[in-house]
Amino acid sequence: MCGRVSTRGKVYTPGSKVPVQYNGIDKEVTWGAYGPSGLVFNARSESVDQRPMFKEDWIKNHKMVLSVDQFYEHGCVVSSKDGQTVKLLCLYLEKFKAFVVVTQDARAGIEPYHHRMPVVLLPRLEDLKVMRAG
Question: Where are the domains of the chain?
Answer without folding.
Answer: 4-132
